[in-house]
Amino acid sequence: MIVVPCPWCGDRNSMEFRAAGESKKRPDVNTATPEQWRTYLYTKSNLADWVTETWYHRAGCRRYFAIERHTVTNEIRTSRLPAAQIRLDESKGS
């Protein structure tokens, strides 16, 4: 069993979650070429190392969050709010 630390609900069994994929920088909507969009959407790095991923807590708070997970050992070293949530909180002055 893999224990996933949800930033809102705490440690939970991985069966409560859905992995939404690698987190990576989105191309600029105004300047990206079709090739850049294809690479962003369909190319995964698939490293045997630490990777930042987006996960969804489907059986709990129903929120997205980011984790750093080692793809070989499945060890999770950090769990945090997604970048969009952090930007939203900063704009509100939280």
Topology:
Layout: E1 3-6, E2 10-13, E3 17-22, H1 34-42, E4 50-57, E5 64-70, E6 76-80, H2 83-92
Question: Percent of residues in beta strands?
Answer: 35-45%
Rg, nearest Å: 15 Å
Shape annotation: globular
CATH topology: Folate-binding fold
* Structural class by SSE content: alpha+beta
Looking at the overall shape, the CATH architecture is: 2-Layer Sandwich
CATH class: Alpha Beta
Query: H/E element string?
Result: EEEHEEEH
Rounded mean pLDDT score: 88
Spatially, the strands of the biggest sheet line up as 3-4-5-6
Distance between the termini: 35 Å
Discrete helix count: 2
Low-confidence stretches: none
| Largest β sheet strand count, sense and barrel closure | 4 strands, antiparallel
Q: Any idea how many domains?
A: 1
Written description of the protein model:
The protein is α+β, with helices and mostly antiparallel strands and 94 residues long. It has a single domain (3-92), classed as Folate-binding fold, CATH 3.30.2270. The protein contains two helices and six strands, in the order E-E-E-H-E-E-E-H. The longest helix is centred in the C-terminal third of the chain and has 10 residues, at 83-92. The N and C termini lie far apart (35 Å). 6% of the residues are buried. The mean pLDDT is 88.
Concise summary:
The protein has a single domain (3-92), classed as Folate-binding fold (2-Layer Sandwich), CATH 3.30.2270.10. Helices cover 20% and strands 36% of the residues. It is built from two helices and six strands.
